[in-house]
Amino acid sequence: MKRWFPLAVFLLASGCAGAPVREEATAPVPGETVIDIRAESYFFTPARLTVPADKPFVLRIRNEATLIPHSFVLENSGGAVIVRHSLKKGGETVIRFSPLSAGIYTFYCDKSFLGMSHRKKGMEGKLEAKRE
Question: pTM for this structure?
Answer without folding.
Answer: 0.76
